[in-house]
């Protein structure tokens, strides 16, 4: 501490020289003044306490609001970030809507337009959904009398093991035959294969368009397309798909040049699709939650009777089982032109059941594969199975495995 310049003696002398002051107040007046000062001091303390309490309430309220309503520092910052992002997205979207100077923007606009168009088309495609209870049962065939004001598209899709091609069919609102390939390609993009226990296969890395006529499909590949190496599965899928859609021939090109070189099939410029493939039919089901689907064999048979017997046999392939029960017997088979008659043994088809319906439809599709147009079942124990009348000729189905 710095030492004072004055000593005690000097200070006393200075104080004595100050003028004398006289207090005329009484002792009572002095005490009253002291009491008033203390009272004022207490009042000030009280006011300060009330103000502090009010301030604490305001601060606590603000903190609680920040926690619940997002006004606190951390929340507020997060909200600002989200708003900036949203504003940027809105601005970007507006710019994309008004400008087309960038290639990326043009591509996004094209994709957006196509998506909107597809959504609009979707509303006119589906007729009835394939509900959950139906998914676990046998998928019925589509017949000609089911197609009043309705068209059908069939797609050949590999099973989940990529062993066989399973045809699945969709009822669509009626369209002109000239639009078949366009609708088929749209359905390829729309189908949910895994829902039916099949492989996720479509859409394909190939451009499909109408060829020289409505019975020809032109397939354009890019150089190095994996489909050229996976040609056995691909060509089987396309044959199954196109044959049900009234296409009898495929032509091929690669990057604008005629023809395509496949790994197994070699160089092909065109490929005819056989009308009658002479196969048997079995059942495919991935698991208990998937529908039972009729599936054609990869083996071809010389005789219709041999194909029927093959439909009773077990397969080594996973998920494949007989479509025709072993105990379903027939005594003779007669054919004339496009008609075939199956004369059943005694006490066959005695009940209207899913088991008998899938057996009859398997026989109808085997007949279709051999070029027959109508089938007659003689000596059945009942008159109807499902909607099929066993007392007369049955026209073979238009397409298998209805999915909607």
Question: Sheet with the most strands?
Answer: 5 strands, mixed
The number of helical runs is 9
Oligomer: single chain
Assign an overall shape: elongated
User: What share of the residues does DSSP label as strand, in percent?
Assistant: 15-25%
Low-confidence stretches: 37-41, 65-113, 119-129
What structural category characterises the helix and strand content? alpha+beta
| N- and C-termini, Cα separation | 101 Å
Mean pLDDT: 80
| Record field, number of beta strands | 18
Radius of gyration: 44 Å
Overview features:
4-stranded mixed β-sheet; 38% helix; 21% strand; 9 helices; 404 residues; transmembrane
Question: Your description of this structure?
Answer:
It is built from 9 helices and 18 strands. The protein has 404 residues and is α+β, with helices and mostly antiparallel strands. It has a domain at 132-272. The strands form 6 sheets. Strands 3, 4, 5, 6 and 9 form a 5-stranded mixed beta sheet that branches. Strand 5 (249-254) and strand 6 form a beta hairpin. Residues 37-41, 65-113 and 119-129 have low confidence and may be disordered. Keywords: Membrane, Transmembrane, Transmembrane helix. This is Negative regulator of sigma-X activity.
């Amino acid at each position: 501490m710095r030492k004072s310049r004055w000593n005690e003696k000097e200070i006393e002398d200075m104080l004595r020289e100050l003028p004398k002051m006289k207090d005329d107040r009484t002792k009572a007046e002095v005490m009253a003044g002291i009491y008033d000062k203390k009272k004022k001091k207490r009042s000030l303390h009280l006011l300060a306490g009330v103000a502090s309490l009010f301030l604490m309430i305001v601060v606590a309220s603000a903190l609680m609001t920040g926690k619940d309503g997002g006004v606190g520092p951390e929340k507020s910052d997060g909200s600002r970030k989200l708003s900036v992002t949203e504003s940027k997205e809105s601005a970007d979207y507006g710019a994309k809507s008004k400008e087309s100077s960038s290639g990326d923007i043009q591509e996004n606009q094209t994709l957006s337009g196509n998506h909107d168009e597809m959504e609009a088309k979707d509303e006119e495609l589906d007729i009835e959904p394939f509900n959950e209870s139906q998914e676990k049962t046998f998928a019925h065939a589509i017949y000609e009398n089911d197609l009043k004001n309705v068209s059908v598209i069939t797609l050949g899709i590999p099973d989940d093991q990529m062993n066989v091609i399973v045809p699945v069919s969709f009822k669509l609102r009626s369209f002109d035959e000239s639009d078949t390939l366009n609708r088929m390609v749209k359905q390829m993009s729309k189908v949910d294969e895994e829902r039916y226990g099949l492989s996720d296969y479509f859409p394909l890395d190939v451009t499909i368009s109408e060829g020289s006529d409505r019975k020809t499909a032109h397939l354009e590949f890019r150089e190095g397309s994996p489909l050229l190496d996976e040609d056995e599965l691909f060509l089987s899928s396309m044959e199954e798909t196109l044959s049900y859609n009234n296409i009898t021939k495929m032509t091929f090109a690669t990057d604008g040049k005629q023809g395509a070189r496949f790994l197994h099939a070699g160089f092909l410029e065109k490929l005819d699709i056989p009308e009658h493939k002479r196969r048997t039919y079995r059942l495919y089901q991935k698991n208990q939650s998937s529908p039972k689907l009729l599936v054609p064999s990869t083996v071809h048979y010389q005789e219709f009777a041999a194909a029927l017997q093959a439909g009773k046999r077990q397969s080594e392939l996973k998920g494949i089982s007989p479509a025709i029960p072993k105990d379903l017997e027939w005594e003779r088979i007669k054919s004339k032109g496009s008609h075939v008659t199956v004369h059943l043994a005694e006490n066959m088809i005695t009940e209207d059941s899913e088991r008998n319906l899938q057996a009859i439809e398997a026989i109808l599709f085997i007949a279709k594969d051999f070029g027959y147009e109508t089938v007659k079942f003689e000596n059945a124990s009942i008159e109807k199975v499902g909607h099929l009348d066993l007392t007369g000729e049955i026209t073979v189905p238009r397409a298998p495995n209805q999915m909607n």
